[in-house]
């Protein structure tokens, strides 16, 4: 729905949208999902039932001072800013060195020392 609203020509039918049931599209349910109503309901439910999980899951919202009642206003302002300037902001290229998760290979001396250490540990275990 958002892609179509943004001007992209995406082949779709109403049956793919939230709120479509029995050949009818319930526009209230669709609007509620577009403006984050289902997220606000979940936030309220977690606040009542499990405060720790609420803080863990919506911590960034809490830090920003966004509560369940503020979501629709937040989504509206985001939609307006996207419509105002739909061009994607240019990212700065990453100039840092990429992370390497590959382990550094042990030298021959390190491998031999490790084997000697393992042998010594097995001998101690066998003698005790």
Short characterization:
With 128 residues, the protein is mostly helical.
**Biggest sheet, spatial arrangement of strands:** 1-2
Number of E strands: 2
Query: What is the overall silhouette?
Result: elongated
Beta-strand percentage range: under 5%
Question: What's the helix-strand series?
Answer: HEEHHHHHH
Q: Mean pLDDT, nearest integer?
A: 89
Percent range for helical residues? 55-70%
Q: How many strands, which pairing sense, and closed or not: the largest β-sheet?
A: 2 strands, antiparallel
Rounded to an integer in angstroms, the radius of gyration calculated over CA atoms is 28 Å
Poorly predicted runs are none
Structural class: mainly alpha
Through-space gap between termini:
71 Å
Q: Helix count?
A: 7
Structure description:
- The protein is mainly alpha-helical.
- It is 56% helix and 3% strand.
- A two-stranded antiparallel sheet has the order 1-2.
- Helix 3 (37-49) packs across helix 4 (51-57).
- The chain is elongated.
- The model has no long low-confidence stretch (mean pLDDT 89).
Task: Tag the structure with descriptive keywords.
single chain; 128 residues; mainly alpha; 2 strands; 56% helix; 3% strand
SSE inventory with pairings:
Elements: H1 2-5, E1 20-21, E2 24-25, H2 27-34, H3 37-49, H4 51-57, H5 59-64, H6 71-84, H7 108-127
Antiparallel strand pairs: 1-2
Helix pairs in contact: 3-4
């Amino acid at each position: 729905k958002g892609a179509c609203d943004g001007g992209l020509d995406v082949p779709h039918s109403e049956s793919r949208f939230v709120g479509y049931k029995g050949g009818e599209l319930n526009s209230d349910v669709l609007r509620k999902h577009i403006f984050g109503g289902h997220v606000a309901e979940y936030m309220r439910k977690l606040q009542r039932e499990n405060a720790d999980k609420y803080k863990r899951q919506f911590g960034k919202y809490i830090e920003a001072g966004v509560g369940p009642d503020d979501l629709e206003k937040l989504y509206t302002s985001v939609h307006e800013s996207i419509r105002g300037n739909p061009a994607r902001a240019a990212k700065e290229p990453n100039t840092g060195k990429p992370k390497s998760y590959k382990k550094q290979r042990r030298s021959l001396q390190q491998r031999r020392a490790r084997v000697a250490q393992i042998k010594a540990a097995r001998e101690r275990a066998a003698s005790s």
